[in-house]
Amino acid sequence: MNTEYSAESAPEGTFYAGMAGVDLKQLFISPTLSYKLNEQTRLGVSPIYVVQQFEAQGLENFAPFSQSPEALTNNGTDTSTGFGVQLGKAMQLTHRLV
Questions:
Q1: Residue 47 carries which DSSP code?
Q2: CA distances from 6 to 2, 13, 19, 93 (A)
Q3: Quick one: which H or E segment has residue 28?
Q4: What is the pLDDT along the chain (98 residues), one digit of tens a residue?
Q5: How far apart, in whole angstroms, are the C-alpha atoms of residue 75 and residue 19?
Q6: What number of other Cβ atoms are within 10 A of residue 17's Cβ?
Q7: 43 closest CA partner among 87, 93, 94
Q8: Which of 14, 30, 31, 84 is the most buried (most CB within 10 A)?
Q9: What is the pLDDT of residue 94?
């Protein structure tokens, strides 16, 4: 997801701080393994690996509204990673209700 506002779009830019915009990138890798335990029950597991990057620029005029004005904008790209797991179970409770 990316937004970019040029300084030419309004006097001195959209937010009066020159060129402005944000850039958000996300990557999720989640291979899934499933197993049919019996005719009524199925089990699944998915390990999850995530990488995310975020960058904001040209938002200086919003600094008075921020708890950390010095960390709001023009600080380059921030990267974070994470791991997780998703477990699932599907059961047929009755012949009419799955």
A1: E
A2: 13, 6, 5, 58
A3: strand 20-29
A4: 788 877 765 567 666 667 888 999 999 999 999 999 998 899 999 999 999 999 998 888 888 999 998 888 889 999 999 999 999 999 988 877 65
A5: 14
A6: 19
A7: 87
A8: 14
A9: 82
